[in-house]
Amino acid sequence: MTNHYHLLIEAPQANLSTGSLDAALTWGYTLKEVMDCESLHDSRVSRAEKTRPDPKRVWRLSGRGSAERLCRRNREDRHHSKVKDVKHIVKKTDRRGFTLIELMIILILAGIIIAVVISGVTGPSEIDTKARVNVIKNHLRYAQSQAMKRGAIWGIKCDSTHYWLFKTTAPDTPANQVALPGESSEKIQLADNKITMTPFFTIFFDATGRPYTAYTDEQANTPLVAILTITVDSTPAGTPETLAITPETGFIP
Predict the structure, then answer these.
(1) What are phi and psi of 223, to 5 degrees?
(2) How many CA atoms lie within 13 A of 6 on its CB side?
(3) What is the DSSP secondary-structure string of 149-198?
(4) How far apart, in whole angstroms, are the C-alpha atoms of residue 155 and residue 177?
(5) Are 221 and 155 in contact (CB under 8 A)?
(6) CB-based contacts of 172: which residues, under 8 Å, 6+ apart?
């Protein structure tokens, strides 16, 4: 046994491994012989050294290349351990971003929340009034664009119950009244849209888009000299909205 199983101090960074014990048993040594050999070594190596052996000590079984295999195996074990630790650190510090679907879901939820908040702060009548004011603005702009496009007088008139689009200088003549885009009749009833408009007004636009409060011909007319502010309210009364027509240019902000 002593000719084949002995301690060799020649392979750095090696330790006693389970593989060397298995190899000794495979080569015909009994467990008792192996343990006896280890007992002989106890007098030279402390228990602490056996628990954490000197890197230069290696148990070597007779046979060519055993020490080298043990060293290589130990290096591989240490390498795998380091790789595992690095992967663990990387995994802990990984922070995944949002996907496109997650962002879309967040935007949809945010839109729903904003709509709920706005509906709680702003009543339905106020929302309807704002929407109707935008419609009236577009009708005034349409009248101005028709005057500039056709080179003739076009305008909008509002009385206590209706407002309507007209052409030429006679707004009350039914033949001169024209249905606005999207409307089924020439006159739009304020009560049907649950709104009121003050003051009552008649606004004319010439071929350049300039606004007038009265217009008979090029010599007899009254240009708009101050901003015309029109107040639109809901019925029943709520929070009124306003729109304005600018002198000279007829700009409607």
Answers:
(1) -65, 155
(2) 9
(3) HHTS-EEEEE-SSEEEEEETT-TT-GGGEEPPTT-SSSEEETTTTTEEEE
(4) 10
(5) no
(6) 157
CA 147 to chain centre: 45
Cβ(206)–Cβ(212) under 8 Å? yes
Its pTM stands at: 0.53
- d(CA 129, CA 189) in angstroms, rounded, equals 15
Single-letter amino acid, residue 98: F
Q: Which two tokens stand for residue 162?
A: 């209706």
Beta-bridge mates of residue 223: 212
Residues 6+ apart with CB under 8 A from 21: 34
Tens digit of each residue's pLDDT, the chain (253 residues): 444 444 433 333 334 444 455 555 454 545 555 555 555 455 554 554 544 444 444 444 444 455 566 566 666 666 666 556 555 555 555 556 678 888 888 888 898 888 777 665 555 556 788 889 999 999 999 999 999 999 999 999 999 899 999 999 999 999 999 999 988 899 999 988 889 999 999 999 999 999 999 999 999 999 999 999 999 998 888 889 999 999 999 999 9
Closest to 168 measured CA to CA, from 148, 141, 147: 147
Closest among 42, 40, 67 to 56, alpha carbons compared: 67
**161 vs 166: CA distance, rounded Å:** 16
Give Cα 146 to chain centroid, integer Å.
42
Please tell me the distance from the alpha carbon of residue 27 to that of residue 5, in angstroms, as a whole number. Answer: 10
Residue labelled with tokens 């708009």: 224
Query: How many Å apart are CA 144 and CA 149, to the nearest integer?
Result: 9
User: Domains plus CATH for the chain?
Assistant: 5-92 (no CATH), 124-245 (3.55.40.10)
Q: What are the structure tokens assigned to 215, written together?
A: 């217009």
